[in-house]
Amino acid sequence: MAWKAPLQDMQFVLEHWLRAEQAWQRLPAYADVDLELALQVLQEAARFSEQVLAPLNAPGDRQGCRLEQGRVRTPDGFAAAYRAYVDGGWPALACEPRCGGQGLPLVLDAAVQEMLFASNHGWAMYTGIAHGAYLCLKAHGSAQLQARYLPGIVSGASLATMCLTEPQAGSDLALLRCRAEPLGDGSYAVTGNKLFISGGDHDLTRDILHLVLARLPDAPAGSRGLSLLLVPNGLEGGVGNGVQCDGLEHKLGIRGSATCALRFEGAKGWLVGQAHGGLAAVFVMMNSARLHVGLQGLGHAEAAWQLARDYALERRQMRAPGHSPSAGGAAADPIHLHPAMRLTLLELRVRTEGMRTLGYWTAHWLDVAGASTDPALRAKASTLAALLTPIIKAAFTDYGFSLSSKALQVFGGYGYTCEFPIEQVLRDSRIAMIYEGTNEIQANDLLLRKVLGDGGEGFALLLGELRAEAGAGQGAAAEALGTVCDRLQGVVAEVERSAAHGPQYPYRAAGAFLQLCATALQAFAWARTVRCLEALQADAPLRREKHESATFFFNYLLPDFDRQVAAIEAAACPLPFIGEPF
Amino acid sequence: MAWKAPLQDMQFVLEHWLRAEQAWQRLPAYADVDLELALQVLQEAARFSEQVLAPLNAPGDRQGCRLEQGRVRTPDGFAAAYRAYVDGGWPALACEPRCGGQGLPLVLDAAVQEMLFASNHGWAMYTGIAHGAYLCLKAHGSAQLQARYLPGIVSGASLATMCLTEPQAGSDLALLRCRAEPLGDGSYAVTGNKLFISGGDHDLTRDILHLVLARLPDAPAGSRGLSLLLVPNGLEGGVGNGVQCDGLEHKLGIRGSATCALRFEGAKGWLVGQAHGGLAAVFVMMNSARLHVGLQGLGHAEAAWQLARDYALERRQMRAPGHSPSAGGAAADPIHLHPAMRLTLLELRVRTEGMRTLGYWTAHWLDVAGASTDPALRAKASTLAALLTPIIKAAFTDYGFSLSSKALQVFGGYGYTCEFPIEQVLRDSRIAMIYEGTNEIQANDLLLRKVLGDGGEGFALLLGELRAEAGAGQGAAAEALGTVCDRLQGVVAEVERSAAHGPQYPYRAAGAFLQLCATALQAFAWARTVRCLEALQADAPLRREKHESATFFFNYLLPDFDRQVAAIEAAACPLPFIGEPF
Q1: Predicted ipTM?
Q2: Taking Cα atoms as reference points, which of A441, A443, A492, A440 lies closest to residue A464?
Q3: Other beta carbons within 10 Å of B513
Q4: Which residue intervals of A141-275 are DSSP H helices?
Q5: What mean pLDDT do residues B357-383 have?
Q6: For chain A: N or C, fewer Cβ within 10 A?
Q7: Is B559 on the interface with A (CB under 8 A)?
Q8: Distances from the Cα of A10 to the Cαs of A20, A354, B551, in angstroms?
Q9: CA distance A236 to chain B (A)
Q10: Which of residues 483-502 of B touch A (CB under 8 A)?
């Protein structure tokens, strides 16, 4: 029941769904990347994930991290796995060659991330923020800071953290209190307490680079008074830097990940970006992290699907209705033949594969945004990635958790025991709905900022992509997607018109709107899949299976769309207040 | 943030929604029970749950059970809490006076169970099966067995277990292998391995009565060859009885509950009911247990709601849109004012309170079934309880888990840590969807056996109750309920007609059908609530709040109904098979 990297499906997405090789040829930075190279990279990542990370997943969860004399010890094997990761050159994968990177497209990074998170979410927390820190430093760091710190991130000698949360300030960064006092030499003394800092301390690398949101002395109140500082855990010559791990959180899941309470006591740091411009700098990192978190949801769904499928193929209970007794004369049928289990298993497979196309598609738009020579296309790609990111983050992590629970149900009582790995997937998956901006924050970001914020202009681009697919395809799937597009456009128009329902109205509609978009995107994913299948041999098993999956999606899952539209309509109704118990 | 028994809402349900006092007057066995007595009982149970059980909930989870020299040690305080429970006379609550019981109605037992499960699910697992064992022995035990064992169950000197599951036989009892050989003196030697036995061993009582499903030597194969045996853990004079606890499960939740692997090695036991008639005997116990499990879902939902509400009233993050800054000048608003949190909190409150009416209503039908002097009414009440039980079991436990997850989201990152109690509610709640018949089994039981099994006759009785409520009320709620009834009737007729879709069709529709019934019942619950409110003072805060809850239900939650109808329609589409990965 060991997790296997879904290389076959990854190849299908790259080769047929994205037609990635052709797309890369249009982007000079990636023109040398062909499908063969891409698949080799994925095979290597698969080997690392299957052979190094997956075996550490359950033991790392059981052992957890511990704080010994002020330093964090990660579970046995985590540090060695990290050395193997560095030796494999993985930190450099999607970094630019001029920074020492391999210059591979983000779509490959997305596939690699999926594998890391699926095989060992707790471990992958340590490396997860590195690419965001790289992007942030590259975009906002001074030349000096870049020269000093980028090489370590790219080589993997350094790992990074994102130090935002404080006890009183979680979703609301405006409430941050951490201070940064100028020391006169261009550096700052950073003081304050940070909470829930993933990888805030560990024994994977000597160097840890903290990216800390803090306030300069003259900072305006609120979120516009935040500055981002790079605070290394140690200074030249092995001198400590006033960063102390005060404690580790005991958590529902990702127990192999050190979630630290950090105390900065006049720790030396340097501004990244402008004074009071910390939010802009942090958002570069945050957007990368949000896509990664969405890919965690995909990884959990894939892990859950594999576990449930393998168990259901093996476990026999009762006769399946309408199924003739198996030839071997066993007294019961494998449970994958039972209708309720078939519904569950198909939902697991179909949602997971749909998510994969959409997650990689989003990463591909980021590649286009960064590497196209056509400024208009770059702008469009940026807009699309910005719209897709909150949907991927929230919807994928919702699915990661709900699908893990459905997979656990397939195991019956065994699923509830720690003997079987599915309960860990359930526990691990739950955090992804919360961190990097709760899913409620994602929904507000999508509807309020990104759809309504520009009068629907950006959203029209996304809708245009879906309509183009509906127009390119034929048959029931394309037709259903066309209807979805019409209705989605109508919903957006209706929401735009409905300011009369008061200032809270779009916030009430936002959660359902995000889910509606996720359903529409899945319809798009499967309509395009159906069209891609024409390139496969008529009798290819993959072709048959993908057709069956698409049919299942349109018959059984697309009806979610109506419920989500109804929820947006319901949002026109005002809500009572929740008061103290009387 | 301590759990408080929801006595006010319990009183509302008893006094106004059920009009329980008037109902009891029509049942001679309960004619002496008035509202005042009922509320006194609930206040006592509340005190016990709040002061004795709730404080042991988190510590019991952390400490868990351990196996020491073959005997189970429960967490510190569990045994003392059980002594207090026995001293309070709680085991006797709903037992007949002729057996030493207090003869109180099951509807009060339901409220007490809700409190036990909400305050400490792990602990309540030990007592949870006792009433089922009492009913089973009373209905199927010989006079000798009753005389010997009933008093201990009623007094609480003995606790009972239900020994069904074996490693190869979970949902499928037909696969059971445990054997029972006649010893010639009317007793049997029971041999075999049982798995997942809650309270299979513990230190709460000396005497544990195992109710074991096993096969006699001449038994036919399959589930019709099962017999039920009572096997005490020890014999007269302190002699052991060949029952060994081989291990404890490490589980996602309910860690204070000892989930045992039991080995019976020629243990002496006595038949309960007929030889080969074990299933009939076990179903008495199982039906009681299924209602109890549904009440666990209610308890989890109530606990989750209280935790989320209290936190949301306290925690401040960001300005709520359209909300004028609070007078105190705080930089952020309490999060219960944020639209996304308001939606979550209202769903928590409204679902929980709706579940409470329906859970107690089901228990009340059991009281009518057992105590009415009118045979026709007894028959009707039995039918209604049989229909309602799988719905309560499955829908309530689905809600218990999904609402716990929603409540956890209110806490943000804190919710994911073990410092806050909500993650335990999430973990504990998950088992209830699995045990006592998975929720998929409940759905099959409802649609295949109880609705289609008698050609819809029984279901017409349930629909009649809903229609009567729709007719009795006025206004939007009653009208919406009327529409729900029409559509539900249409769905049942359609499902009955659709045999042409093949033998798997109703099994594909069963899960959605159960959810549909649950939504219809919630519409019924809230329509009746609206009507009941007329009895309250016009300016009573409870009246306003219940009106708001009902409005929220019909605006925001009832649209689930359409999605569930669509899922049943989708079930007409055949499903592909899940194969081995290729």
Answers
A1: 0.97
A2: A492
A3: 28
A4: 143-155
A5: 97
A6: C
A7: yes
A8: 11, 11, 47
A9: 34
A10: 502
